[in-house]
Amino acid sequence: MISRKLISNLLALADFYPVVVVTGPRQAGKTTLCRAAFPDKAYVSLESLDTREFAQTDPRGFLAEYQQGAIIDEIQQVPSLASYLQSEVDERSTPGRFILTGSQHFGISQTISQSLAGRCGLLALLAPDWNELRQFDSVQQISTLCFGKVPIPGFMTGIFLHTSGSPTTPLPMFSAMFVKY
Questions:
Q1: Taking the domains of the chain in order of start, what are their residue ranges?
Q2: Which tens digits make up the pLDDT trace of 11-70?
Q3: Could you report the per-residue pLDDT of 79-133, keeping only the tens digit for each?
Q4: Distance between CA 171 and CA 158 in Å, rounded?
Q5: Architecture of domain 7-124
């Protein structure tokens, strides 16, 4: 795992707020960061259809499964869960009880800020920056990790793994990602 500078911010927010929301584009490392910061906390992904259906049809029952709290991944899949989390943390406001991750969507940010106002800390995570990548011993290790080849072509097509080796020019890739996220 790449050591992320924002891990200290995440831990500080969890020491104060009962809910912490980590947002960012896909493949930025949200889940990895949260699981590394809270290795003993239960983890549940709303990407799983069965889990998502449980959270949608019985949100109180779903949250009852995690009385001690949990990392709830992909919260944008069940945005209505934020209202139920509000009731849950109003009853027991333990700092760092729930850690939520989600892709950056205006709707989810708005839903969470309305339902969990004053109860949650927000952290925006982007792809690793150059200083975070520099922790590796050599350019070759960084190159292999990110691109599987020499770094310059990788930087020209984007740092996200799904764009490496793509013949696409940088501008359309950036524009598509900017619009999507």
A1: 7-124, 136-180
A2: 999 999 999 999 888 877 889 889 999 999 999 999 999 999 999 999 999 999 999 999
A3: 889 889 989 988 998 999 999 998 866 556 667 767 777 788 888 887 766 666 6
A4: 10
A5: 3-Layer(aba) Sandwich (3.40)
Q: Tally the residues of the chain.
A: 181
Decide if 69 contacts 41 (C-beta within 8 A).
yes
DSSP assignment of the chain, as one string?
A: -PPPTTHHHHHHHHHH-SEEEEEE-TTSSHHHHHHHH-TTS-EEETTSHHHHHHHHH-HHHHHHTTTT-EEEE-GGGSTTHHHHHHHHHHH---TT-EEEEEE--HHHHHHHHHHTTTTEEEEE--SPPHHHHTTSS-HHHHHHHHTSS-HHHHHHH-SSGGGTT----HHHHHHHHHHH-
Give dist(CA 113, CA 90) in Å, integer. 15
